[in-house]
Amino acid sequence: MPVAPSETYVIGVDFGTLSGRAVVVRVSDGAELGSAVHEYPHAVLTEALPDGTPLGHDWALQVPADYVEVLQRAVPAAVRAAGIDPARVIGVGTDFTACTMVPALADGTPLNEVEGLAGRPHAYVKLWKHHAAQPHADRINQLAAKRGESWLPRYGGLISSEWEFAKALQLLEEDPELYARMDRWVEAADWIIWQLTGTYVRNACTAGYKGIRQDGHYPAREFLAELNPAFADFVAEKLDQPIGRLGAAAGTLSAAAAGWTGLPEGIAVAVGNVDAHVTSAAAQALEPGQMVAIMGTSTCHVMNGAEVAEVPGMCGVVDGGIVEGLYGYEAGQSGVGDIFAHYLRDLAPEYTHERLTELAGRQRPGQHGLIALDWHSGNRSVLVDHELSGLLVGETLATRPEDVYRALIEATAFGTRTIVETFQAAGVPVREFVAAGGLVKNPLLMQIYADVLRMPLSVIGSDQGPALGSAIHAAAAAGAYPDVRSAAAAMGRKQIAVYEPDPAAADVYDELFAEYTKLHDYFGRGANKVMRNLRALQRRVAAGTTITAYGQESTR
């Protein structure tokens, strides 16, 4: 594609779970001219810190220096791949997985980089899928329900262990000395903007969805003090910060960041944002009722509505959380691509995704005789319980790897249908379903979703939805368009109704979904607490404590 010297460009940088990707986008029409990926050198820390310090159960940490390397490596490489003059770049936009939290000093230095703290687990970034704060989330939910906190219904009645307050409370109670040394509890989406501009601005998206900020207020000091007296001033001392409007400029590129990226100092840097939410702009899905599912290691479902409604188990509803003038709704599944990857890596390593997809694609719906629950990483929506776990029903001596693989795909589709139907029942209609993310490359998976949902599936017209969405926000922040809506209209793209539901397959999936729902409610709504009990036993054994036959604790 020829590059006109009069054209201007923006950079979108998508910070994912395992890597960061930079994309060069032409402002006039959204054409993606070049991209580059940088894998995080430390990936995700789940077993131990870099120095070998062991981690507990359900921990998931990252090293913030890996994010800076994305700016230093991927951005210049993308510019080279695009073959453009970097002087023609007018803005940068970024997105991050939420809620990914950086404990930092007042100048933004992450605590793990402070001398003497590299061996302290709580000094590191808590990745979105860090679920070790579930007991703390349980306490927040119990207290909020008891006090009748007005903000609780805005989150479907439950706060997740993945979110800012639960993770911060865990830090306080497990390492109070480190909590005292921490000046700022920062979303990585905002921390990376701080590194680019030298200015710390909280984005409205994560503040609303993950920081329990509603109608301009966080949970009250009295509420926090009742959780733990030392937590009373958490908001005032460590969390509160000026809020930046999505699509606005948080500041301009600093000299240091210009040196990292090779971009001009002083260009606009958009307010930080979240991967799922920026993708709505890239998919031209900003109107009420257009649900976008960003399907990768996990799935995030986002949609705008004209009014506020209480949707059980949603991750939140925020005024302007996706685009100004509408209420942005969010729900999600904690594990999707992660579930398939785990199955191949640990249980069927002799296969590839391509081979199992081919074999599973030869089957008719219901042929394998299986049904699964997609809770291998807990349940984000609509149960909001990360103590739940996966389940497979119907396995026999004739069950083959491709049977299980297809059942897992179907389980994730049933999880999405549960979310869609919960929104519909709450008076928030889903009129269009738009798929984005890496999993859209699997036609079998997409067709199964269309059949399970009984809805046509539109598909984003980009392989880099979040990065394109960030670039669209950068164009608005740079003043190339008056707002995000107009930038999305010019730069976004979507293929409409690419997958149509097969009525015969949908009939079978209706039957299977009814059975899924029975299992979902039986294990997920308290009738059978075996999953939570197994987790509790696992933690006791890992800690070296077991219960003897006489009901007494024994320490090995």
TrEMBL record:
UniProt-listed InterPro entries: ATPase_NBD (IPR043129), Carb_kinase_FGGY (IPR000577), FGGY_C (IPR018485), FGGY_N (IPR018484), Ribulokinase (IPR005929)
Catalytic class of the enzyme: transferase
Domain annotation Carbohydrate kinase FGGY C-terminal: ranges: 292-478
Pathway recorded for this protein: Carbohydrate degradation; L-arabinose degradation via L-ribulose; D-xylulose 5-phosphate from L-arabinose (bacterial route): step 2/3
EC number: 2.7.1.16
Pfam family, one: FGGY_N
Listed SUPFAM superfamilies: Actin-like ATPase domain
Annotated keywords: Arabinose catabolism, ATP-binding, Carbohydrate metabolism, Kinase, Nucleotide-binding, Transferase
Any GO MF annotation of the entry: ATP binding
Gene Ontology, cellular component aspect: cytoplasm
Similarity section: Belongs to the ribulokinase family.
The protein, known as: Ribulokinase
Organism whose genome encodes this protein: Actinoplanes nipponensis
Lineage: Bacteria, Bacillati, Actinomycetota, Actinomycetes, Micromonosporales
Gene for this chain: araB
